[in-house]
């Protein structure tokens, strides 16, 4: 729970200059994480060439950061209530910078995966401080919605800067430079946060339940690993066992929370339609955004042949649209009401996803940029609105737990988008790729990734190599079509559920 450090202190109703400066620093933390989440998208082909990861290792490099972060958010949020949210923010920023340096100078896929894990641990200390601090710093409802819109816009802005900055860096430096961009942001955050963000902690935090913390981490990681491995390689005994373990541990965790005086998560929140709808919409919006970024960067570079900077520029309209969407969320909610302001953008996002079935191996850069712009615009509105719904649904003293759940869905949605859509795409890719003319070793290398197929083609005779490239491009685009249709259906179902579940009670004055 969130309580003021000094409950007797009078808190101004409206925020002043210091609060808005504090918001800017909190937004830096979000920017740090967002840049790191998307800057890697344009670097995927370079990492594949330099480190030679398998398709499974490549997916882990991209998404293990988000999985670890999602698994630790609830625990770190509760820890911040006890030791101080600003202190946790500063510790996380320092750790994130160190882990980024380690990632930049990695020499093997395993080393890079380890660095990404450490980034995830550090990132989990950063995220809980942001949304919960906004809830406590901005008491005026109108100012708070505006602040959350800015917070969301910074995430979109970081996503927009990531591919563009990554493209520029890859044009001039080695692939590890995409991680070093975190360091100056971390230094600025460490210098500014103590001056403009007030320390806050729960003066009566209750007992920290280590058992619940362990259960939440184990349930999250076991379930996610099972889904990821099954999607990538098909059913086998280990993912099935771990998936079952994750479900059982999750059930035990929920049962335990119902009996504790100070639970890590108040599971009763999920009985509220507005809260549960916001969480699902949050996760699926990021699912679509992250998945499209992951396979889109490979399509633009490896299929259409654009250089990294050019690829970043093609992604810029979509990620910039997410910033615009974040800032539009508050006025749309006032004009249309929450129900339509959430449902319509989700439909726009679904439209952007399904339009990608028009992509082909011979072109489609403008279509991809347009589709991604629709996805970014719809997701920007939805993500900001759902974040505001989460903190507005619960009492102020429960905002910390609610924020942790929201951010967990945010990170898990992004990681699942990369893992699930990436795995579906690669399953189609392997099924469609024609390797009948290749030796066994070459066929195995070509099936690993699109980059692997192109690298294999370079070693073959010109005729055989050209045919392999043609087949790889066609197979990859076919995978994009399947992933896009699945994403559009999920988003459309979520939009319909939002329109249905957020209907005002009969005779009520709700929207």
UniProtKB/TrEMBL annotation:
Localization per record: Cell membrane
Transport found in the keyword field: yes
Entry's transmembrane regions: 20-46, 58-76, 88-107, 113-134, 146-166, 172-196, 208-225, 237-254, 275-297, 309-333, 340-359, 365-391, 412-429, 475-502
Predominant location: membrane
Domain Major facilitator superfamily (MFS) profile: 22-506
Keywords: Cell membrane, Membrane, Transmembrane, Transmembrane helix, Transport
Organism per entry: Pseudonocardia hispaniensis
Membrane topology: Multi-pass membrane protein
Keyword Transmembrane: yes
Signal peptide: none
Protein name, entry field: MFS transporter
Gene3D superfamilies recorded: MFS general substrate transporter like domains, Multidrug resistance protein D
């Amino acid at each position: 729970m969130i309580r003021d450090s000094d409950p007797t202190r009078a808190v101004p109703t409206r925020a002043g200059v210091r609060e808005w400066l504090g918001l800017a620093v909190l937004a830096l933390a979000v920017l740090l994480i967002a840049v790191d989440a998307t800057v890697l998208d344009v670097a995927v082909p370079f990492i594949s060439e330099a480190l030679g990861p398998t398709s499974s290792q490549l997916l882990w490099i991209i998404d293990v950061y988000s999985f670890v972060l999602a698994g630790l958010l609830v625990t770190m949020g509760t820890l911040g209530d006890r030791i101080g949210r600003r202190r946790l923010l500063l510790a996380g920023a320092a750790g994130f910078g160190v882990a980024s340096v380690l990632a930049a100078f990695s020499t093997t896929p395993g080393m890079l995966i380890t660095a990404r894990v450490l980034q995830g641990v550090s990132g989990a200390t950063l995220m809980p401080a942001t949304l919960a601090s906004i809830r406590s710093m901005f008491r005026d409802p109108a100012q708070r919605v505006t602040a959350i819109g800015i917070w969301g816009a910074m995430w979109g802005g970081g996503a927009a800067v990531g591919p563009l900055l990554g493209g520029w860096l890859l044009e001039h430096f080695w692939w590890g430079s995409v991680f070093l961009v975190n360091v100056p942001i971390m230094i600025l955050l460490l210098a500014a946060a103590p001056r403009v963000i007030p320390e806050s902690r729960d003066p009566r935090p209750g007992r920290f339940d280590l058992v619940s913390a362990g259960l939440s981490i184990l349930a999250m990681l076991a379930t996610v690993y099972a889904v990821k491995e099954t999607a990538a390689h098909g059913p086998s005994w280990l993912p099935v066992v771990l998936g079952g373990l994750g479900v059982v541990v999750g059930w035990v965790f929920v049962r335990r929370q119902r009996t504790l005086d100070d639970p890590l998560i108040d599971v009763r929140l999920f009985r509220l339609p507005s809260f549960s709808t916001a969480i699902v919409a949050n996760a699926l919006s990021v699912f679509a955004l992250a998945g499209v970024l992951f396979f889109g960067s490979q399509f633009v570079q490896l299929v259409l042949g654009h250089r990294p900077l050019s690829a970043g520029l093609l992604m810029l309209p979509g990620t910039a649209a997410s910033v615009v969407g974040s800032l539009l969320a508050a006025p749309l909610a006032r004009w249309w009401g929450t129900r339509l302001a959430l449902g319509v953008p989700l439909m726009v996002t679904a439209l952007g996803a399904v339009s990608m079935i028009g992509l082909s191996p011979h072109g489609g850069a403008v279509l991809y940029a347009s589709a991604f712009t629709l996805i970014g615009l719809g997701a920007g509105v939805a993500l900001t609105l759902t974040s505001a719904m989460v903190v507005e649904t619960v009492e102020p003293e429960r905002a910390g737990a609610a924020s942790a759940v929201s951010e967990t869905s945010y990170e898990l949605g992004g990681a699942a988008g990369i893992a699930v859509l990436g795995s579906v795409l690669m399953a189609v890719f392997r099924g469609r790729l024609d390797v009948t003319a290749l030796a066994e070793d070459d066929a195995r290398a070509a099936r690993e990734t699109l980059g692997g197929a192109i690298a294999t083609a370079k070693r073959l005779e010109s005729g055989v190599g050209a045919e392999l490239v043609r087949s790889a491009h066609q197979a990859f685009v076919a995978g994009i079509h399947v992933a896009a249709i699945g994403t559009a259906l999920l988003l459309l179902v979520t939009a319909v559920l939002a329109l249905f579940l957020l209907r005002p009670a009969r005779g009520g004055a709700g929207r």
